[in-house]
Structure formats: structure tokens, C-alpha cells
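Lab manual, section 2.4: Encoding a predicted structure.

Procedure: take the sequence of the chain (103 residues), apply the prediction step described in section 2.3, and record the output as C-alpha cells. A sample record is shown.
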Amino acid sequence: MNNFSAEQAVWTSVLKEAFGPTVELEDVDGTTLVYDLVAEFEISGQSYAVLQQPGDDSGEHDILKVVTSPEGNLELATIDDDDEWENITELYDEMTFPEDNVE
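Recorded output:
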């Protein structure tokens, strides 16, 4: 069950304003990958970024935490907690594909 609702979330653009529409991430092997910054949102004081590889039409996306390093730089971090991951992905789905209110 999701602990958050779409009404609690706020769309943001902090990363887009800082870095533009794409970000480069380095994987564990040191390979740099480019991602489109699809969306950003904040919930309960934590920011998240939705990324997708350019040309990927599968609808698959990655959601990462936006964190501030000790030096004050914005960084992206994986969501390691399974419950948080499930809650945030469900929230993003709710935000982007709201249920139709059929009367």
C-alpha cells in the first residue's frame, strides 16, 4: 500500500534548471550513460527524478533520489529501500496516470 498520495506531491524542476534536459550517469563499470530527465517531484521533503534513456519507447523509466552532497552539489542516488521504491513508483504512476473518475 502506498503511503503517499498524488495530492501530497509537488512537481519540481531543480535538476532541469541546474543541468538541462539530460543528465549523465556513470555505472559501476565506469561507463557514462545519458538519460533524459522526464520529470521531477518532491514528497515529504524528499526530491526524486524520473529518468529515461533517449530513444527508449518502452515506457520504462528509472526513479532516483535527488540528494545534496556535503559540498552542496545535487546528486542522484538509487532508492535502496524496497518499501520506499514501491511507494515512490506507485506514486509516480498515480501522478502520471490518474484513475478516471467515472460517475
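Check your result against the sample. Helices lie at 14-19, 82-96.
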